[in-house]
Automatic annotation (TrEMBL):
Residues 419-434, 464-474 have a biased composition (Polar residues). The active site is at residue 732. This is Tyrosine-protein kinase. Residues 419-438, 458-486 are annotated as: Disordered. One of its GO terms (biological process) is morphogenesis of an epithelium. The lineage of its organism: Eukaryota, Metazoa, Ecdysozoa, Arthropoda, Hexapoda. One of its GO terms (molecular function) is non-membrane spanning protein tyrosine kinase activity.
Length: 872
């Protein structure tokens, strides 16, 4: 419905005028507001420029050179300045808009006036005619009355006049006729004015008023259109989401996004890099003891009757401190795994309800792992002292404490107390350095131990055997009666002969680690003899099970004979035989009696049985050789351990053998034996002809089929499934640590880091961790389970399908670690079956519990291979 039909009434007309007045007032208000906004924006622009200038007053000195954060900030401030300029520009445009509104308001005022005048004009004509009709009507009435009166007079005169003539009658008639004419004329005027009024009124209503209203509507609507356009312009200049601002914002976002913590200090580190500081050297000052003959040795704990109690107390204290550290670590780990807050009460926010929750979570993990490392260091430091004291106490043996005042007397005292003959006593009066004594003796007798001396120097053995002494011969028979300890040794005859080297004795176990020795001695009276290296000197130790485990160092007299508390003997074999036959305690205090010699186990091979042929690899501890066993003619692989490595490392080296000897599976490399009789100690294993899987993959990258790659994955899964069932965590599963035989069959190898535990928490440093193969929970919290091996298995799969590529290539370890923590996973290698890649991703689930176990992995791979085989 338009104005023309709806707004014809007078009231509507007045309302329309009022409406236009209101619109004019609204325009005024808007104008004032827009003016104010323009002013505000201008002021804001000025303030923003000041902000940018303030922000740019930063240190441009060298210290921040290359810093991404400083560069981004500067660019951000520049962008703010740009933003300020844009604001100013827009404010100026708003002022133009204001002017437009002023003009519009003036035009509108004029249009309202024109409407009012036009309406009045057309209404005036109708009003005038209306008045005319009224006036004509009253004239009509007036003439009608005059006419009626004259007519009455005429009729009266006419009736009364007999002749119907006369002057008077004529006069009356004349007047009557005039009145009659007047009436008729008035009548006609009246009729005409009514007719005109009808016409004018009709036109007013049907043509003129609607026309005016229609025109007015169109005028008002076009004002609204202009008005709207002006408003649109005004809004547009205040639109903060406009492209210009968006572009600025986008640039700011990109700048801030380009801040990269791992690159931030690149240039800085490059500029200030220095070679690592030389370690501080703490060295025992030898001059301190040069005047104290024999008692105190540099860098060595002195264990004697004066110090033993103090050492034991100290040991207790330190062990307590180690336990303390361990408990704290456990608490921390529990906390990380969802337990209670850490012991020191520092509640670490999980950050989940903060806007930068992920970051704060990461920070707190970082802090925990730092604290954990600090505790591990503390534990390691204390443990080192514990080990040192324990080692000192153990090596001396609880029962054979030298006197702190005069050690020459101690041995003598023992002899006297035990009633041994004077001749022997005299021989022992001038005891020389025990270690050297053994060495001299062994060398003199064609002793066979290759003894480690300082800085890798070693002595060669002579091969001339010594004739047996009369005592030896007389007791040989009894020694022969000894029964071997285990069934496997049942056929071995334990015999004594001084004309064969000590290392050939079945009960001599060479440098077998102490843990192994303890494992072998189970019943009271079980004993064996072994070699240990202390302070770079070889010592022969008798280990006995007697109310626990006791270790006695064989003492050497100045004449080069061997003894405990009893008489000295010319050979170690004779000394041991004497202890065995006499059934006398090795030391009075210990009461330990030798009952059963424990012979070497099946896998304790003789070093001389191994002939090294050619070097086939290089391991962490030494070279790996292809070799032949003389006894069986079997081709084997032999890992050797460098002689110069410290004891601790040698123990670690043998750890692999200790673990491997229990396993028997086609996909686990087989242990044949260990050689610990003398240096270099060796691990003998089945020879796997294809060598390392990694080298194999790289060399054969062109010839490998998907089927073969899947087969390799299945083999590895089978081996790992077996290990998982044995609670063995490998901890270093990777292509470089797998071997491949000629049928592409894969065998898991390199058990140097393995642990036989369901869960293993690393408490020493994480120096040699293969970061790119290790699961996040192990890296962050040192927590290892078989599910960590599953993660590494995923990387192994990736290596197999990428044919020996390096994982996360182009990334440093720390970058890879950081990206993994934020959810990054390697893309699928080319031509990997989709299901295999899916399996890799499952192995790399952040939550260890969501990863599949090895039996599931094996089943999946096996089923996929079956499907592949059937499809061909
Ligand atoms: P380590 O455990 O000391 O690091 P590895 O087990 O990695 O030593 O062995 C080093 C290299 O020696 C391997 O990469 C492989 O080439 C070779 N190797 C090791 N064991 C065998 C074996 N049983 N058969 C064949 N080659 C082997």
């Amino acid at each position: 419905m338009g104005f023309s039909s709806a707004l014809q009434s007078r009231a509507a007309h007045e309302a329309l005028i009022v409406r236009q007045d209101a619109e004019l007032r609204l325009m005024e208000t808007m104008k004032r507001s827009i003016q104010m906004k323009a002013k505000c924006d201008k002021e804001y622009a000025i303030s923003l420029t000041a902000v940018a200038q303030q922000g740019l007053k930063i240190d441009r000195a060298d210290e921040m050179q290359g810093s991404l954060i400083s560069k981004s900030w500067r660019s951000y401030m520049d962008e703010l300045d740009q933003q300020a300029k844009q604001f100013k520009l827009n404010a100026e445009q708003l002022e133009v808009v204001c002017d437009k509104l002023t003009h519009l308001s003036q035009d509108k005022r004029k249009a309202r006036k024109a409407y009012q005048e036009e309406h009045a004009k057309i209404a005036a004509r109708l009003n005038h005619l209306t008045d005319e009709v009224v006036r004509k009507k009253s004239e009509y009435q007036k003439h009608l009355e005059g006419y009626k009166a004259l007519r009455t007079r005429f009729e009266e005169n006419y009736i009364k006049a007999p002749s119907r003539s006369g002057r008077k009658l004529d006069d009356v008639r004349d007047k009557y006729q005039k009145a009659c004419r007047k009436l008729h004329l008035t009548h006609n005027e009246y009729v005409l004015s009514i007719t005109e009024a009808i016409e004018v009124e009709k036109d007013f209503r049907n043509v003129l008023l609607p026309g005016l209203l229609e025109h007015q509507q169109s005028v008002q609507e076009s004002f609204i259109l202009l008005w709207r356009n002006i408003l649109q312009e005004a809004v547009q200049y205040g639109d903060l989401t406009a492209d210009k601002y968006k572009e600025i914002q986008k640039r700011i976002d990109t700048l801030i996004g380009s801040i990269n913590p791992t690159e931030e200090y690149g240039e800085f580190t490059e500029k200030y890099k220095t070679s690592p500081t030389t370690p501080l050297l703490f060295q025992f000052d030898e001059t301190l003891i040069q005047d104290i003959p024999g008692k105190l040795q540099s860098s060595t704990l002195t264990v004697d009757n004066l110090t033993v109690d103090w050492l034991r107390n100290r040991l207790q204290e330190l062990e307590g401190a180690v336990r303390d550290c361990q408990e704290k670590q456990l608490k921390m780990i529990e906390h990380v795994n969802g337990g209670s807050p850490v012991a020191n009460g520092s509640i670490i926010s999980n950050g989940s309800n903060t806007s930068n929750g992920i970051q704060s979570n990461k920070d707190s993990l970082c802090r925990q792992s730092k604290d954990l490392n600090a505790l591990r260091c503390q534990e390691k430091q204390k443990q080192k002292l514990v080990d040192m004291i324990k080692c000192a106490l153990n090596e001396v043996g609880c029962e054979e404490l030298p006197s702190g005042c005069d050690d020459d007397l101690t041995l003598e005292q023992n002899f006297i107390e035990n009633g041994y003959n004077n001749e022997q006593q005299q021989r022992s009066n001038s005891t020389s350095s025990p270690g050297l004594g053994i060495m001299n003796e062994l060398m003199r007798r064609g002793g066979v131990l290759t003894l480690l001396r300082g800085r890798g120097r070693h002595f060669k053995r002579k091969s001339t055997p010594q004739p047996a002494t009369p005592m030896t011969r007389s007791r040989q028979g009894r020694f022969n009666k000894l029964q071997p300890r285990s069934q496997s040794l049942g056929s071995l005859s334990i015999s004594l002969s001084t004309n064969r080297p000590l290392y050939e004795e079945e009960w001599f176990h060479g440098v077998l680690p102490r843990e192994e020795v303890v494992r072998l001695l189970n019943n009271d009276g079980d004993f064996l003899v072994r070699e240990t290296i202390r302070n770079e000197e070889s010592q022969i130790v008798l280990s006995v099970c007697w109310n626990g485990h006791k270790h006695f160092i064989v003492q050497t007299t100045s004449e080069g004979n061997f003894r405990f508390e009893g008489p000295p003997f010319a050979s170690i074999q004779e000394l041991i035989m004497h202890q065995y036959h006499s059934e006398l305690p090795v030391t009075v205090k210990s009461g330990s009696i030798l009952r059963r010699p424990v012979c070497r186990e099946r896998w304790e091979l003789s070093n001389d049985d191994v002939v090294l042929l050619e070097r086939i690899g290089r391991g962490n501890f030494g070279d790996v050789y292809k070799a032949k066993l003389k006894s069986t003619k079997l081709d084997v692989a032999v890992k050797t351990c460098r002689m110069t490595l410290p004891d601790e490392q040698k123990r670690k080296f043998l750890q692999e053998g200790r673990i491997l000897k229990q396993y028997d599976h086609p996909n686990i490399v087989k242990l044949i034996g260990i050689c610990v009789q003398k240096q270099p100690i060796m691990i003998v294993m089945e020879l796997v002809l294809g060598g390392s899987l990694l080298t194999y993959l790289r060399k054969n990258s062109n010839g490998l089929t998907t089927r073969q790659q899947m087969g390799m994955c299945r083999d590895a899964a089978a081996g790992m499934r077996y290990l998982e069932s044995k609670n063995c965590i490998h901890r270093d599963l990777a292509a470089r640590n797998c071997l491949v035989d000629l049928e592409h069959s894969v065998k898991i190898s390199d058990f140097g880091m393995s642990r036989e535990e369901e869960e293993y928490i690393v408490s020493d440093g994480m120096k040699q961790i293969p970061v790119k193969w290790t699961a996040p929970e192990a890296l962050n919290f040192g927590k290892y389970t078989s599910l960590c091996d599953v993660w590494s298995y995923g990387i192994l799969m990736w290596e197999i399908f990428s044919k020996g590529d390096t994982p996360y290539s182009g990334m440093t370890n720390s970058r890879a670690r950081e990206r993994i923590d934020t959810g990054y996973r390697m893309p699928t290698p080319k031509s990997t079956p989709e299901e295999m890649y899916r399996l890799m991703l499952q192995c790399w689930a952040a939550d260890a519990e969501s990863r599949p176990h090895f039996d599931e992995i094996y089943n999946v791979v096996d089923a996929l291979i079956l499907r592949l085989d059937n499809s061909h």
